[in-house]
Write a structure and sequence with these properties.
heterodimer, A: mainly alpha, D-Maltodextrin-Binding Protein, domain 2, 2 domains, B: alpha/beta, Rossmann fold, four-stranded antiparallel sheet, about 35% helix, globular
Chain lengths: ~425, ~250
C-alpha cells in the first residue's frame, strides 16, 4: 500500500505540474456538455415545445379551414408561422421558390375555396347518410360530385430531416382531423335542425372528448419531467469521461518513452501498483469532471434558456455510477496506452474508438430506434451500460439496486481491461532493443 | 580488493527476438566476480544491451542459465530485484518532477522511506554536487546533471550488483570524471558493477575485466591491460577493439 501511495503522489505531482493541461482537462468537458446540449436542444425541441422552426404559411382560403389551420399551427408552439416576407404577403409561388432555394424548410398553402369544398363534401356525406336513414333529399346533392378532393399543399425542403417531416405531417393531420370532425358535427346538427324544425334543437358546441394524460411508471415524474437536459447531460458527460483515454494513454506512453517504465520494471514493484496509481489519480480527475459537468447542467444551461438538470435525490447511486463508469473508461485507457506503440496510435485509436463505442452504445441515437443486429451490438458497449444507468437514475427514478447489473458490467469491464494490460506488459516488456 | 568469488554466472545464454532468425546473443558463457567492475564492450547491435536487459530481468532469455548471487533469474525474479540496481541508457526520470521528488519516488519503490531515505538522498546529492539543484525540475537540468541523478536513482537501495548501460554517454568531461571516480568508490564498498560503454579509454581506465562482444558472441575477455599485452600489434584497447570488430560502420 505504501508503494501505491508513493506512486499515486508521483502521478498527482506530474498532473498538477501541467496547469494548462489540467484546465483543459476540466474545462473542455464542461464546454462540450454545454455546447452539444445546446445543439441537441434544437433536435429535441422541434418535437417538443419551443417555437423555433419557421414555416411559410399561405392562406388563400381565408375561411374556417385556412384560419383554423393558421391558429392551430401557431398554438402548437412548434413552429413560427410566417405569412409575409418584407411586409409583402406570401404567394404560393414565392413560398415554393423560398423552399426550393433552401431559405425555408416548409411552406403550407391552403388553396382558395378549401373550406367551401370541404363543407360541400361533408354535406354530401351527411346527406347520403341521412338519405339512407330517412328520405331522399336531392337538394343538398346539387352541384357536388363525390370525387371532389380537398388538398392542402405542403412544400418540404429535401434536406429536412425525416423525423421532423413526420412530426410536421402528424401535427397538420391532427389539425385537419379536428377541423373535419367539427364540421361533420356541425353539418349533422344543421341537417337535423332542417329536417325537424319544430323541435327547436339547441346549438351544441363541439368539444373533444378524449384527452391524453402522460403517466410515468416510476411515479417520480411529477417532480422531474424529462427535459432535453435530462437526456443530453448524461450522454455527453459519459462521452467526455471516456475521453480521459487520451491524457491517460499519453501519460503511459510518455513514461515508456522517457525510460522510467524500464527502471520501474527492474524495481520490486508490480505493474498493477503502477497501473492502479494512475487509476487512482485519473479516477479523481474523472469524478471532478463529472461533478463539473453536472454543475454545468444545473447552473450554466439555464443561462442559455435551457432546462436545468434535475438530479433527484439519489446522489449516492449517481456517485457510485459515475465512479464505476470512470473506472471502465480508465481500464480502457490503460489497455490502449499499454498496447499502443506511439502517441499517434493511441490518440487516433482512442478517440475514434470512443466515438464508435458512443454511437454504438446509443448515446446519440437511442437503442430503441436501432434496427436488427445494431440493437444487439449496442449492449456490448460500456458507454451503453453507463448511459442506461444514468437514464435510469435521472429519468426513471431508479435506485442503486435497480442499476446493479450496469454497475457489475462496468466493474467487470475495468477488471478485464486492466488485467489484459498487465498480462500484455508482462509478456511484452517495453525494451526498445 | 581482489575479485575471486563469482556473483553472476552466465551459461549458454541465447536470445532470439521475435521474428528474427539471427540471435541477438549467441551461447554466451561467463562468470562475473564479486566486487569487480566488468565492462561489456561492443559495437552497436553487438548484444550488450540485450545481455544487460536479461540480467536485469527485463525479459527472459530464449535459452541458457543465469544466476545472480546464487539465485536463478527465472525462478527468483522478484528477490533479485532487491539485489540489483539498474541505470538504464535513457535518462529514466520524470522530467516535470524535481530531482528530489524523482529520488524519493524511486527510493519509495524499493520500500525506503522517512529519514533513512532522506539521508541517503542527501548523501548522494552532496557527493554528486547536486544539493543546490535538488528542488529544480529535472527538465531544467543539464545533460550531465540528469545522468548523475539517473545514476543515484539506481543506487539508493545500495544494491550488491549495479548494471550501468552507457552511463556517461553525451556528458561533459567533469560529469564523466565524477561518475567514474564514484564507481571506483562504490567498488570499494563491495558493489559489483557491470557496465557497457563505447568509450574504450574509459573502460580501460575503469574496468577490472572486459568482454568484447560482437554479433552476439564474446570474442575476447580479460583484463584490459593483459588483453593488449597479449596482442602486441595493438597499442591500446581501442585499437584492439577495432582490430577484433572491424572498422566497418554498424547501425
Amino acid at each position: 500500500m505504501f508503494k501505491f501511495f508513493a506512486a499515486y503522489r508521483k502521478e498527482w505531482l506530474i498532473l498538477i505540474r501541467d496547469p494548462a493541461g489540467l484546465i483543459v482537462l476540466f474545462l473542455m468537458p464542461m464546454v462540450m456538455v454545454v455546447v452539444l446540449s445546446m445543439v441537441q436542444e434544437f433536435g429535441w425541441s422541434t418535437i417538443s415545445k419551443e417555437p423555433q422552426v419557421p414555416v411559410l404559411f399561405v392562406n388563400l382560403d381565408q375561411d374556417s379551414v385556412g384560419n383554423k389551420f393558421q391558429q392551430g399551427l401557431s398554438e402548437a408552439k412548434i413552429f413560427t408561422l410566417i405569412t409575409a416576407l418584407d411586409s409583402i404577403p406570401i404567394t404560393e409561388e414565392t413560398a415554393r421558390q423560398e423552399v426550393l432555394e433552401g431559405n425555408y424548410q416548409i411552406a403550407v398553402v391552403i388553396p382558395e375555396q378549401t373550406s367551401e369544398r370541404l363543407r360541400a363534401k361533408i354535406r354530401l356525406l351527411v346527406s347520403k347518410t341521412m338519405t339512407s336513414l330517412m328520405m331522399p333529399d336531392n337538394d343538398i346533392l346539387s352541384g357536388v360530385t363525390n370525387n371532389d378532393s380537398v388538398e392542402i399543399l405542403i412544400y418540404f425542403d429535401p434536406a429536412v430531416r425525416n423525423s421532423f417531416r413526420n412530426a410536421f405531417l402528424s401535427a397538420t393531420k391532427e389539425f385537419n382531423s379536428r377541423i373535419e370532425s367539427r364540421m361533420i358535427f356541425e353539418t349533422f346538427q344543421d341537417e337535423l335542425r332542417n329536417l325537424f324544425p319544430k323541435f327547436n334543437m339547441p346549438i351544441i358546441d363541439y368539444q373533444e372528448s378524449v384527452y391524453f394524460k402522460e403517466i410515468f411508471p416510476s411515479g417520480v415524474e411529477e417532480e422531474i419531467l424529462p427535459s432535453t437536459t435530462q437526456h443530453n447531460v448524461p450522454s455527453w458527460a459519459i462521452f467526455a469521461m471516456f475521453f480521459i483515454v487520451i491524457p491517460l494513454t499519453s501519460s503511459i506512453i510518455k513514461e515508456r518513452e522517457e525510460g522510467s517504465l524500464i527502471r520501474l520494471m527492474t524495481i520490486p514493484v508490480s505493474y498493477m501498483t503502477v497501473f492502479m496509481s494512475k487509476v487512482g489519480v485519473y479516477l479523481l480527475v474523472c469524478f471532478i469532471q463529472f461533478v463539473l459537468m453536472v454543475l454545468a447542467g444545473i447552473f450554466v444551461l439555464p443561462l442559455f434558456k435551457m432546462p436545468a438538470l434535475e438530479l433527484g435525490t439519489n446522489y449516492f447511486a449517481i456517485a457510485v455510477l459515475a465512479i464505476v463508469s470512470s473506472l471502465a473508461a480508465l481500464g480502457y485507457g490503460i489497455l490502449i496506452g499499454t498496447v499502443s506503440r506511439t502517441h499517434q496510435q493511441a490518440a487516433a485509436f482512442g478517440a475514434v474508438s470512443v466515438v464508435v463505442l458512443a454511437a454504438m452504445g446509443g448515446l446519440w441515437v437511442p437503442v430503441y430506434l436501432m434496427q436488427g443486429v445494431m440493437k444487439h451490438i449496442a449492449t456490448f458497449s460500456p458507454l451503453n451500460w453507463a448511459h442506461a444507468g444514468f437514464l435510469d437514475l435521472f429519468l426513471r427514478g431508479s435506485t442503486l439496486v435497480d442499476i446493479l447489473p450496469e454497475i457489475i458490467k462496468l466493474l467487470l469491464f475495468f477488471a478485464v481491461t486492466i488485467s489484459i494490460a498487465a498480462i500484455y506488459r508482462t509478456l511484452k516488456p517495453p525494451v526498445s532493443k | 580488493m581482489t575479485p575471486s568469488e563469482s556473483i553472476i554466472g552466465i551459461r549458454n545464454l541465447t536470445k532470439y527476438y521475435k521474428g528474427t532468425d539471427t540471435p541477438a546473443i549467441d551461447h554466451i558463457s561467463l562468470e562475473i566476480f564479486r566486487n569487480e567492475i566488468f565492462g561489456l564492450l561492443g559495437p552497436n547491435g553487438a548484444g550488450k544491451t540485450t545481455t544487460i536487459s536479461i540480467l536485469s530481468g527485463l525479459f527472459p532469455p530464449t535459452s541458457g542459465e543465469v544466476t545472480i548471487d546464487g539465485l536463478d533469474i527465472r525462478s527468483n525474479h522478484e528477490k533479485i530485484k532487491y539485489i540489483i540496481g539498474v541505470v538504464p541508457q535513457e535518462v529514466a526520470l520524470y522530467p516535470t518532477l524535481t530531482g528530489l521528488e524523482n529520488l524519493q519516488f524511486f527510493g519509495n519503490m524499493y520500500g525506503l522511506k522517512g529519514l533513512e531515505l532522506r539521508q541517503r538522498i542527501d548523501e548522494y546529492l552532496i557527493r554528486f554536487g547536486l544539493e543546490k539543484f535538488a528542488r529544480k525540475k529535472v527538465e531544467k537540468y543539464s545533460g550531465g546533471m540528469k545522468r548523475r541523478v539517473n545514476l543515484i536513482a539506481g543506487l539508493l537501495h545500495k544494491p550488491k550488483v549495479l548494471f550501468l548501460d552507457e552511463p556517461t554517454v553525451g556528458i561533459d568531461v567533469q560529469s564523466r570524471n565524477v561518475i567514474l571516480e564514484f564507481l571506483r568508490e562504490l567498488q570499494e564498498t563491495g558493489t559489483t558493477i557491470i557496465y557497457t560503454s563505447h568509450y574504450m579509454e574509459e573502460a580501460e581506465r575503469l574496468c577490472d575485466r572486459v568482454a568484447i562482444i560482437d554479433t552476439g558472441k564474446i570474442i575476447a575477455i580479460g583484463n584490459p591491460k593483459e588483453l593488449v599485452e597479449k596482442n602486441p600489434e595493438f597499442k591500446n584497447l581501442e585499437n584492439l577493439f577495432l582490430g577484433l570488430t572491424g572498422k566497418g560502420l554498424r547501425d
